[in-house]
Amino acid sequence: TEHYLSAKPLQGQHWVVTAGPTVEAIDPVRYLANRSSGKMGYAIAEMAAKAGAKVTLVSGPVSLDVPFGVNCFKVESAEAMLKQVQDALDNDSVFVSCAAVADYKPKTMATEKMKKSGSEGLTIELSQNPDILRWAAQETNAFCVGFAAETQNVSDYAKSKMERKGITMICANDVSRDDIGFSCDHNELLVFIREHDTTKEQRIGPASKIKVAEQLIELIHQVRPS
Ligand code: CTP
Ligand code: CA
């Protein structure tokens, strides 16, 4: 694989990668967020750049350095991430949607820090965020690759997610396991690829997220219609 990427097979291609969580403000000091270290998305961005692609990384707040040669836009909310992806995507891009986008955001953001009152609980009303991957799949010709972090029925949920979003490739990982996934340096993916009315399945890893990224890039490059 290393050989493969060093031959720069992605030269001339534009890859857009989302990574990390989105954070949705409740008030100036509090937010709702998803669990994501950003490591998998950053590894994909890094290795795609090494393989010769022009890479745009749209990242939620994470504590990782921007990989060499990668153009990175930092965002906080799902709305902001959608805008950057809309700006970045060309019709012939590859879009790898690795971010853990918050499904909901507080309906309103308090402009001042909220104060406790009495001993009552607190109810925060939420509204749904835009689905960035679905937008990309429906509104552009980019080749879209989704991720599905699941805690149960991993294959079934991932396959139905692929249908629902209108994409042909999805990478599932089982986040209920503590040896792979969240904040780990290792990962194992079960990749589903839809071709006409059959769905192929391919396992990548367990291996370091960098190795997994290399193999995934090679697979995307093979599968993507050109
Ligand atoms: N995704 C996205 N925008 C959202 C939600 C998800 O772009 N608002 C992308 C993720 O980056 C991932 C894929 O969609 O590539 C699947 O995300 P997931 O949260 O597993 O799917 P959902 O459709 O949100 O379904 P649910 O959370 O209910 O399982
Ligand atoms: Ca979700």
From TrEMBL:
<keyword id="KW-0511">Multifunctional enzyme</keyword>
<comment type="pathway">
    <text>Cofactor biosynthesis; coenzyme A biosynthesis; CoA from (R)-pantothenate: step 2/5.</text>
</comment>
<keyword id="KW-0436">Ligase</keyword>
<protein>
    <recommendedName>
        <fullName>Coenzyme A biosynthesis bifunctional protein CoaBC</fullName>
        <ecNumber>4.1.1.36</ecNumber>
        <ecNumber>6.3.2.5</ecNumber>
    </recommendedName>
</protein>
<feature type="domain" description="DNA/pantothenate metabolism flavoprotein C-terminal">
    <location>
        <begin position="10"/>
        <end position="222"/>
    </location>
</feature>
<keyword id="KW-0285">Flavoprotein</keyword>
<feature type="binding site">
    <location>
        <position position="113"/>
    </location>
    <ligand>
        <name>CTP</name>
    </ligand>
</feature>
<comment type="function">
    <text>Catalyzes two steps in the biosynthesis of coenzyme A. In the first step cysteine is conjugated to 4'-phosphopantothenate to form 4-phosphopantothenoylcysteine, in the latter compound is decarboxylated to form 4'-phosphopantotheine.</text>
</comment>
<feature type="binding site">
    <location>
        <position position="161"/>
    </location>
    <ligand>
        <name>CTP</name>
    </ligand>
</feature>
<keyword id="KW-0210">Decarboxylase</keyword>
<feature type="binding site">
    <location>
        <position position="147"/>
    </location>
    <ligand>
        <name>CTP</name>
    </ligand>
</feature>
<comment type="similarity">
    <text>In the C-terminal section; belongs to the PPC synthetase family.</text>
</comment>
<keyword id="KW-0456">Lyase</keyword>
<feature type="binding site">
    <location>
        <begin position="130"/>
        <end position="133"/>
    </location>
    <ligand>
        <name>CTP</name>
    </ligand>
</feature>
<dbReference type="GO" id="GO:0016874">
    <property type="term" value="F:ligase activity"/>
</dbReference>
<keyword id="KW-0288">FMN</keyword>
<comment type="function">
    <text>Catalyzes two sequential steps in the biosynthesis of coenzyme A. In the first step cysteine is conjugated to 4'-phosphopantothenate to form 4-phosphopantothenoylcysteine. In the second step the latter compound is decarboxylated to form 4'-phosphopantotheine.</text>
</comment>
<feature type="binding site">
    <location>
        <position position="165"/>
    </location>
    <ligand>
        <name>CTP</name>
    </ligand>
</feature>
<feature type="binding site">
    <location>
        <position position="103"/>
    </location>
    <ligand>
        <name>CTP</name>
    </ligand>
</feature>
<keyword id="KW-0460">Magnesium</keyword>
<comment type="similarity">
    <text>In the N-terminal section; belongs to the HFCD (homo-oligomeric flavin containing Cys decarboxylase) superfamily.</text>
</comment>
<keyword id="KW-0479">Metal-binding</keyword>
<feature type="region of interest" description="Phosphopantothenate--cysteine ligase">
    <location>
        <begin position="15"/>
        <end position="226"/>
    </location>
</feature>
<comment type="pathway">
    <text>Cofactor biosynthesis; coenzyme A biosynthesis; CoA from (R)-pantothenate: step 3/5.</text>
</comment>
